[in-house]
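Researcher: Sequence recovery benchmark, item below. Answer with residues only.
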């Protein structure tokens, strides 16, 4: 198992968190996605480490910016 926390900007509400969660959760191997709106933290638990480019693409597709890769 792998757990990584990313920082995402632009999320301001539950709908924002849901959009990011949906996109990231669709990546192969993702088991869980937890979003903390207050900090912008998105913690991803997956079977194996995910390519940062894939996480960046998912967050971007949701309409937000990934600060850390």
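Model:
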């Amino acid at each position: 198992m792998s757990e990584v926390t990313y920082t995402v900007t632009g999320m301001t509400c539950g709908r924002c968190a849901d959009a990011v969660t949906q996109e990231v959760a669709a990546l192969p191997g993702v088991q869980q996605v937890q979003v903390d709106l207050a900090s912008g933290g998105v913690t991803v638990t997956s079977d194996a480490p995910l390519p940062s480019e894939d996480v960046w693409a998912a967050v971007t597709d949701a309409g937000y910016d990934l600060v850390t890769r």
